[in-house]
Amino acid sequence: MSDYCDLAPAHPFHGPYHDHEYGFPVEDDDTLFERLVLEINQAGLSWLTILKKRDAFRSAFEGFAIDRVAAYGDAERARLLSDAGIIRNRLKVDAVIHNAGVIQTLREEHGSFRAWLDRHHPLPHADWIKLFKRTFRFTGPEIVGEFLMSTGYLPGAHRDDCPIQRRILAAAPPWSREA
């Protein structure tokens, strides 16, 4: 996404994401879940749309608390589908709720969502896609690729000459530790 390094700086929405989040390693599971939710909801839309709605997503999904979202039933699903602040797509809402339950299982089996990701790293992009398709709902090649780049599991978030790339490398994302 090398053109993102040209577009994002000084932009009110893209700038902070580019400079402080995109490509940096993520430690906690709720933040990893947030990134997955945002990438799922971006499908078919612009990233700017998602960034503008991010606070509404955070509120609607209760801070992306995995256990809370996994427990959502019909009332919460209906609330989400009527919330104009987020993307009101039944397939995406259902995927988010389902995927929260999947992450609960991954935490039980591996200790955390992050530990599950670390266990499978490094995989080629095509193998990550297969793994995510077997594990989660609504995760195609673009969603998986952007999720993994945004959380530091795949390189490519920033150009080598982007000043943020030095900070990314200093944070030692998983892709930078490959043999």
Summary tags:
zinc; globular; 179 residues; Endonuclease III, domain 1; mainly alpha; 11 helices
Précis, in short:
The protein has 179 residues and is mainly alpha-helical. It has helices spanning 4-7, 14-20, 29-42, 47-60, 66-70, 74-81, 90-110, 113-120, 125-135, 141-150, 163-170.
In terms of topology, how is this protein built?
Layout (H helix, E strand, L loop, with lengths): L3 H4 L6 H7 L8 H14 L4 H14 L5 H5 L3 H8 L8 H21 L2 H8 L4 H11 L5 H10 L12 H8 L9
Helix pairs in contact: 3-4, 3-7, 3-10, 7-8
Characterization of the model:
There is one protein chain. The protein has a single domain, classed as Endonuclease III, domain 1, CATH 1.10.340.30. It is mainly alpha-helical and 179 residues long. The protein has helices at residues 4-7, 14-20, 29-42, 47-60, 66-70, 74-81, 90-110, 113-120, 125-135, 141-150, 163-170. The model has no long low-confidence stretch (mean pLDDT 96). The chain contains eleven helices and no strands. Helix 3 (29-42) packs antiparallel against helix 7, helix 3 packs antiparallel against helix 10 and helix 7 packs across helix 8 (113-120). The chain is globular, with a radius of gyration of 16 Å.
